[in-house]
From TrEMBL:
Residues annotated as domain Glycosyl hydrolase family 32 C-terminal: 432-475
Cited function: Enables the bacterium to metabolize sucrose as a sole carbon source.
Protein name: Sucrose-6-phosphate hydrolase
Catalysed transformations (reactions): Hydrolysis of terminal non-reducing beta-D-fructofuranoside residues in beta-D-fructofuranosides
Amino acid sequence: MNLVSKIFKEAIIQKENEYLKKNIKDKWRLNFHIMPPVGWLNDPNGLSYFKGIYNIFFQYSPFETEGGLKFWGHYQTKDLINYKYVGVSIYPDEKYDCHGVYSGSAFIEDDKLYIYYTGNVKLLGKHDYIESGREANTMLTVSEDGINFSEKECLMKMKDYPKDITNHIRDPKVFKYDDIYYMVQGARKYGIDRNNDIGEVLVFSSKDKRKWTHTSTIHTKDIFGYMWECPDLFNLDGQDILITCPQGVKQVESIYENIYLSGYFLINDDYKNKESIEVNNFTVLDRGFDFYAPQTFLDENGNRVIIGWMSVPDTEDIHKNLTVDYGWQHCLTIPRELSFKNGKLYQKPHRNLEKLREKKIFENKYSNNTLSDNLIYNDINSYEVIIDNIKIDNNINNFEILISKGLCAKYKDNKFILEFVGDTGKTIGGGRNKRSAHLEELKNIRIMADTSSLEIFINDGELAFTTRYYPLEYSFKILGEMNITIYKLSSFKFNP
Ligand code: FRU
């Protein structure tokens, strides 16, 4: 640890303790989601199961609630239920990363945790920071215990990337096949002019984890956004899949609704041996308002698990998170198990989270065409709902759930719709309005509801809708024919 990180460390601990001491009565603090101790959180980073412990790092700006200089905050857990806050593990303390320890990944081999990330540097002077003025260094630091990290190594600088790439290249994710290591990075390639820059993913390969060569580029035929962030490439159930976050794709109702997207392409070509891989048919991973920059990892049983950031960049003017007034902002999604079937990715809450079920508070078969009474009572602010055996009468569109006053989820004309309605909707959604997606048939729904977040999984995870919300009261009412079970959920346990 150098002098710069020592100074940062003291200041951060002081800031976190001040926040704790204030003992703010903050009803939006979540019960079973990872939040920043204070200040701002964005992408999950370095997700890994290493020596019997899960590491969940995250983009952390402790000093600024609206985001600023990025550090890697760090939680550890053995079971995804009981957590220890380790503190900041990686600081922007070197000339290669002095303006931010940006996103990256973990790779495990020989009992060592290899952390690859982007060291962000912004040069002084007159720059647009796209074509000039920004350095994105590919960095490595290694740990044997998951807590102490080696001297940082700068593996690639701007001069080592292809010449047709702007200054925007970042977020290395590393994996291995046969005896070769691969790294994917998100990139913004020069277009014919600044308005036509091209998002793509660069694949690098290496024999020793340190010396990397650009060997392949994954791209679309027509431009699909100007920048692709946070790539992740893995094989699941026999299918190669590239997750990435394109920016600059035209928003289309019920298809691409968020300002920046997060989703996946199927790769049906040999990226290990071919220089140019064309992909098409992008599928959005989560159709709600708040999902971005996800990363996957393997859990202790070898299941592919995904965690996302429960927000989208540059949405401050679109919707407001009411937690800002309390000195913090954003959280991660729950860990979700992924599977690939029917040509699609499915996601469902990680099985360990079933341990959060404290007691069953409601179970009934319901068949009525009037709105039910409130099914939640005693001020329960985190709960899980399981709905199945849904019978839809297409003539009267008889399926609706009111998740608190002002927020409605319904199935209508082959669309699943999540909508903040009326004046109450405006307040509790912080400016969010409506999201929808085509759905051939509605079979079942599972909702993980926390104090200020909702994660809705439809048809065993065929669709997901994730959103923050700030309810005036916790209530849950239904209209339609279905079986419904509701559990009160307990909280993650954090060390002091
Ligand atoms: C995605 C992102 C990444 C970058 C990080 C910086 O949200 O922009 O591309 O590494 O956030 O915090």
